[in-house]
Write a structure and sequence with these properties.
The protein is of the alpha+beta class. The chain contains nine helices and five strands.
Length: 300
């Protein structure tokens, strides 16, 4: 059985992961060379990460940690002449971003929904459905606005390149730019699809709380976030493994694929080349290209 390979768009490049093999490929902006570096895997909760409904939370933590490391490394490789942010500064920036996201996409929709006449005393499912639609609307607007930013648009293009190369690998095709460009930028195992699943699962789980006071609702949302993440991960994992078997799963996965139209863009050939370099490294970590005396970084 072929190993499942996933990835992430980073600054001017792509990170790919094949189990413990993790590679970052970036195009250096000063001279256009593609640089590759392997990242060590750090699975802090390996045993807990195998328990259904718990593994999603720990997997999410591992992916966020890996994503931060990959982003830091990609910035160093793409812009080596620029002053880099310290690890502490990166952590603070990330923590502030998480706090803002929780406030904008969790607390604010709940707060606004509580002012709609009749909802606070009515059916909790209807209340949470309206709240969920507001949350989703805010998220759509946010993605649409940032997609218009030049730097973010380039990241979304690399996101599309990552998906195209993963599709090529899964189709057992030769990893070439021409083959990859024939594939779609959308993929059912994408993290964007995970976010769409989170929004839907949240409506169902938050409805179980009922209609308590507003502060209790806010507290319950925060406390139930790990539960939502755990359930959402299992749903996405099951869908990803059986996507091509059952039409009903393909239908349920469509909203997540539609959302990816905002988070992926068509890449150029140079971007696909970078994604292929990252994929080849995790498939064959012993494959060396460039300077044989520098196993950490090489040009292709």
């Amino acid at each position: 059985m072929k190993p499942v390979i996933g990835g992430q768009a980073i600054i001017e490049g792509v990170m790919m992961q094949n189990g413990d093999r993790i590679a970052v490929a970036v195009r250096r902006q000063s001279d256009g060379e593609v640089l590759i570096r392997s990242l060590p895997a750090r699975f802090r909760f390996k045993k807990l990460g195998q328990i259904p409904f718990l593994r999603g939370l720990f997997r999410l933590y591992d992916m966020m940690s890996l994503g931060l490391r990959a982003l830091n490394l990609s910035t160093e490789l793409a812009f080596p002449e620029d002053e880099q942010m310290s690890k502490g500064g990166t952590f603070v920036t990330f923590a502030v971003a998480i706090a803002i996201a929780i406030g904008a996409f969790m607390v604010l929709p709940l707060y606004l929904t509580s002012f709609i006449p009749g909802l606070t005393s009515g059916n909790s499912i209807v209340f949470n459905l309206v709240e969920g639609l507001l949350r989703l609307s805010f998220f759509f607007v946010y993605l649409f606005l940032i997609s218009k930013m030049k730097d973010i648009h380039r990241v979304f293009q690399y996101h599309g390149a990552e998906h195209k190369v993963v599709h090529t690998y899964e189709a057992d095709e030769e990893l070439t730019v021409e083959n990859a460009q024939k594939h779609t930028t959308l993929h059912p195992r994408c993290g964007t699809a995970f976010l769409m699943t989170v929004f839907v699962i949240a409506i169902l789980i938050f409805s179980l709380v009922g209609q308590p006071a507003l502060w209790v609702k806010i507290l319950s949302r925060l406390l139930l976030l790990p539960v939502v993440a755990g359930v959402s991960y299992e749903v996405l994992r099951f869908t990803g493994r059986n996507y091509h078997r059952w039409w009903i799963l393909r239908a349920l996965a469509q909203p997540g694929l539609w959302l990816q139209k905002l988070t992926t863009s068509e890449p150029d050939d140079a971007m696909v080349e970078v994604a292929i370099a990252s994929m080849k490294r995790v498939l064959d970590p012993d494959q060396m290209v460039g300077n044989p005396n520098d196993p950490a970084v090489e040009a292709v």
